[in-house]
Amino acid sequence: MASVEFANVRKSFGTHPVIKGVDIEIADGEFVILVGPSGCGKSTLLRMLAGLENISAGEIRIGGQVVNGLAPKERDIAMVFQNYALYPHMTVADNMAFSLTLKGAAKAEIDKRVKPAAEILGLTHLLDRFPRQLSGGQRQRVAMGRAIVRDPQVFLFDEPLSNLDAKLRVAMRAEIKELHQRLKTTTVYVTHDQIEAMTMADKIVVMHDGIVEQIGAPLELYDQPANLFVASFIGSPAMNMIKGRLDPNDALKFVTEKGVVLPVAKAPESARGRALIYGLRPEHMTIADGGIPANVVVIEPTGSETQMIMRIGGDDITGVFHQRINARPGETVGLSIHAEATYLFDAESGKRLV
Amino acid sequence: MTATTKPPSALGALTRNNTFLGFMFLLPAAVFLLCFLTYPLGLGVWLGFTDAKIGRDGVFIGLDNYIALANDSVFWMTVYNTVLYTFIASVLKFALGLWLALILNENLPFKSFFRAIILLPWVVPTVLSALAFWWIYDAQFSIISWSLIKLGLIDTPINFLGDPNNARASVIAANVWRGIPFVAISLLAGLQTIPQSLHEAASLDGATGWQRFRFITLPMLTPIIAVVMTFSVLFTFTDFQLIYVLTKGGPVNATHLMATLSFQRGIPGGQLGEGAAIAVAMIPFLLASILFSFFGLQRRKWQQGGQD
User: Fold this and answer.
1) From residue A24, how far is each of A67, A205, A218, B72 by CA, in Å?
2) Would you say residue B306 has pLDDT above 70?
3) For a tag site, which of A198, A278, B2, B251 has the least CB within 10 Å?
4) Residue B129 CB neighbour total at 10 angstroms
5) Which DSSP string do the residues of B234-260 spell out, in sequence order?
């Protein structure tokens, strides 16, 4: 086990920069998830850590040692690939034992390492099968087993769940998390799915366009997004964003472009007189008589909660309510907004002001 | 639906009969195969049992041709030559072709240009390249001899096609030159079906370049190697043009292959029956190589079962 450090890491393909100066510190035993939309550079960053891509500038350190010049096999890391990359001509047991076989380990030693790993993952009865004879979830487990047998310094996961169906993905999510709690090996995990990031990570790194937008614990990112990108990326349904400005006469009133007034809890000096974006999480509102009139556009009851898309002035906002609502599309409801839970972003820079 | 139901006609019933329909669809291909494959092959086998000469229908003489061949030292010489020729040329073609394919599979500059160039020996008509080799191997004007003399390595020109062993090596070299592109390009196609992530996983698992080749590339390439080498062996075993242009079987039958001997006895020699018998004698060797490929081609256990 070891810590991992990225120090001002850069990467260009030809003249095209894809990683534009990334600094991340990952403590020993931490489960860190790199998340971002496709093309943000998260997979490239992981492959650079694995040694599969070279580093254009900056330093990557594993356990304090600079690994820029080290070949993948010298870095003592194990990686689970998106397509699992199982060796199709080897049985499950041989797949898991491959790294040991290469080192010329004795049969007894191999058994001693493969058996417990297979047991942890429930693969014992599949050890003689070939990858083609396994289901997607089983292949996924074999890929993890291959990593566990290595007992490496760092585990890398490259979108490991994206080839699985939704139900299996939820199950594997829990399984990977449990595995980490058991092995306590430093883990770097790449995904584009913010739910995966929120549910599994100790620490999330939100990436966008080759830079790190924000690093923090899941709920920290949820509650205190640094900017518009993080605010809109984390959370489902996404945060509502409404353009407008503060009322020059009353800074605790936000006036949308359509003239609707929304409440604000506090308004710093910096927010006054400039174009702003009002951020409101779907769950931070309630239906109340005498609230802001909102026209119901779509109502989606899911049983435990009700999701509603409503129109305020000209802006569509989504609300999630933990109650059953008997509204119909076209009706008007009163909306009470929890002012203390709202955000204000600078429309130009995207930075969060409140 | 109900209104249009009519009593089925005989033709209608036939066209709905899958067996009949399947037979009809097979017919064109079957006729084609019968006319152009089975008939000449059958005729060849039949001629082998007759004493037919050019201009004269033969009569059935049983195994006389084969008995004569069994006591014919020239025939046994060609069998030896053919097996030697096929074996050495195929091994060299495989080794060099695989090596070339591995090089071309790397990220080279001008990759597609080199891949196109590689195909040239394969594209040039055999007779043309054989003529070129004829000059290269000329007893007096050989460019190889000339270069070596100029370099001071030898004093007299090499007698490429005049000495039995030199001649064998020379025709094998020409055959290898011609056959490499087929092997290289086919194996290259096979190499490209191996996912990059397998190599990445292996290198993370600690495999060296040689171990990646030994444990990933080679086993995954085996099915394709089996097909390619079967074809390569068949082509080499039945080779005719190269020998016919370069040596006509000489010196003293040292480079005579079964195919060239069959032609020589059958057409210029006029002994159609004997020539056919020699050609038929090639069949067991060819069958053996096809059987080899049949077992080599069988889907291995790891390729079976499951869905992708």
Assistant:
1) 15, 8, 16, 83
2) no
3) B2
4) 20
5) HHHHT--HHHHHHTTT-STTTT--HHH
Mode of pairing for the β-strands spanning A186-191 and A31-35: parallel
Q: What does pLDDT average to over chain B?
A: 86
- Residues of B with a Cβ under 8 Å from any A Cβ are 195, 197-198, 200-208, 211, 215-216, 219-220, 300-306, 308
Residue A78 C-alpha, separation from nearest chain B C-alpha, in angstroms: 6
pLDDT, average across residues A279-302: 92
* C-alpha–C-alpha distance, residues A163 and A86, integer Å: 14
Fold category of A4-232 in CATH: Rossmann fold (3.40.50)
Residues in chain A within 8 Å Cβ distance of B206: 73, 99, 102-103
> A73, A86, A140, A148: which to substitute to probe chain B, counting the most B Cβ within 10 Å?
A73
Q: Residue B128: CA atoms inside 13 Å, Cβ hemisphere, count?
A: 6
Query: Region A133-153: what's the mean pLDDT?
Result: 90
List of chain A residues whose C-beta atoms are within 8 Å of the C-beta of residue B204? 50-52, 72-73, 77-79
Which residue out of B193, B198, B205 would a mutagenesis test of the A interface target, given it has the greatest number of A Cβ atoms within 10 Å? B205
Count of residues making up chain A = 354
**Do A198 and A204 contact (CB within 8 A), yes or no?**
yes
Cβ proximity of A286 and A292 under 8 Å: no
Q: Is residue A333 over pLDDT 80? A: yes
SS3 of B202, please? helix
CATH architecture of A237-346: Beta Barrel (2.40)
State pLDDT tens for residues B283-298.
Answer: 999 999 888 877 766 6
B205: closest chain A residue by CA: A99
- The answer for residues whose C-beta is within 8 angstroms of residue A263's C-beta and 6 or more apart is A252, A253, A254, A337, A339, A342
- In words, the CATH class of domain B81-298 is mainly alpha
Which of B202, B216, B303 faces A132 most closely, judged by CB atoms? B303
Task: Locate the domains of chain A by residue range.
Answer: 4-232, 237-346
Q: Are B157 and B139 in contact (CB under 8 A)?
A: yes
Whether A79 sits inside 8 A of B201 (CB atoms) is yes
Q: Which of A85, A133, A146 sits opposite B200 (nearest CB)?
A: A85
Residues of B whose CB is below 8 A from A113: none
Residue of A78, A85, A132 lying closest to B198 (CB–CB): A85
> Which chain A residues contact residue B209 at CB under 8 A?
none
Please report, for chain B, the start and end positions of each structural domain, with discontinuous segments joined by +. 81-298
C-alpha A243/C-alpha A254 separation (Å) is 9
